[in-house]
Give the backbone structure.
Amino acid sequence: MESMHLQPFTFEGVPNERPLVIAGPCSAESEAQMVETAMQLSALGIKIFRAGIWKPRTRPGSFEGYGSIALPWMKSVKDATGMLTATEVANVKHVYEALKAGIDILWIGARTSANPFAVQEIADALRGVDVPVLVKNPVNPDLELWIGAIERLYLAGVTRLAAGHRGFSTFEKIAYRNDPNWQIPIELRRRIPNIPLIVDPSHICGSRNTLFEITQKAMDLNYDGIIIESHINPDAAMSDAKQQLTPKDLGELLGRLIIRKEYIENGSMVTIEELRSQIDKIDDKIVELFEKRMQIAEEIGKIKRENNIAVLQTKRWDQIITNRVNQGKQKGLSEHFIETVFRAIHEESINHQTQIMNQNQTVKTD
Ligand code: PEP
Ligand code: MN
């Protein structure tokens, strides 16, 4: 698809500065909980309030949100604080009800953005409506699916779009509830350069103690905003209790964040440019070395073809990986990095060799 012409993800009455902060409870639990939380968040200078009205839960039996009866509580938040309000929509009915109730920002949750039919229905319902939409990444680490969801909305005429990074499900136990897989949002921004990127540390972390490091990392990667869960009494929350912060703790977290600029106005940019040109030269050499390595692999391929030897020799591959992982360790390079790089190189070598093996294949008739 051609490049997207997005409108800025900015709002009247909300200072246009990084980071844009959207905060509020995971779920709308009562009018009092909402208004009290909102008053405390508003006192911190936060201008956009989030709360889940309809909650898609992984397993049945958990609290699934109060649904439509909670929509007027959003209005009470607006009346009490002047904050803008945001909620999740997962189907057409949610869209209509949220718009009717005057919700200012909609978001598409991770379980919904994984489903093109659902996203398309929401997109169709939003045709001709000027409402900003935050598209969270799908639960699975699939960049194309995420981009696809954003495109479906864009093609329906929604141009105030942002991407929400809430991490990706994994089967393995990891340090976080969802794997941040930072390279996916980074690649998303390379593909859609002007899309605002909003981190959702709550759903990445799953617990309070890692929220700061994930939020700071996102700021270091030049994210535009934060959507974070905050509850007046987190331990008693009806959903996602472990990851919610009191407004006071949220204020403390935000206060500790170091917000870096993307560009520097003074002389140190020159130094960075110089260092970047050194990196470009190194990258040049790396690609040339790859080319040379593949040429040699092709030579080996010819010999293997003439002698009818299999392309893959497990022992040799084992040796390459073990040696390089050890060498990498001595040079401060992680095992994961070396393995990933050499696996990719090896795969490319095998592809080159396979091509050679399949060239000039003559069928012997004698
Ligand atoms: C939420 O924001 O409360 C939520 C359900 O998020 P996600 O879709 O990222 O799981
Ligand atoms: Mn939640």
